[in-house]
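Many introductory courses stop at the sequence. We go one step further.
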Amino acid sequence: MARAGGAPGLAMWLGLAAVVVLLDQLTKTLIVGWFEPGAVRPVTDFFNLVRVHNRGAAFSFLAGASGWQRWFFVGLGVLASGFIVWMLRSHGTQRLFGFSLAMILGGAVGNIVDRLLHGYVVDFLQFRFALLEPVFAGGYFPSFNVADAAITVGAIGLILDEILRVRRSRG
């Protein structure tokens, strides 16, 4: 798993990505088994479990297209995943960078699996905040899933990694 000197290797990052995919698919399988499409179960005043089918990308981008978007997003996800694996092979010893890429890879593969199995992505986490009302109807942030959350964590990690890299180079 780790290389000499304790540096993480490709196997560790691929293992982390696999854990994300498994957690994502497990939660989606539970939602599909327990919820009818469109069902909403309030958990708190600001959080619901829902079952939403997203045929588009983030914020339902291209969801209303005629079906071609399924294969476009599968192809894009496969290309991005290949690039991420290549980056992990080249820079896998960089901990934050590797962690971030592994999270994005796991999320991308989780959503690719959905598109291949169902033709859409299963989203089930829904948050509502009054301060979002000017931007989102009723203050409901678009529903998302574990894969989406992993991609977001990975993107934040990449930004943080770059900020830290720039600071080190100036130091």
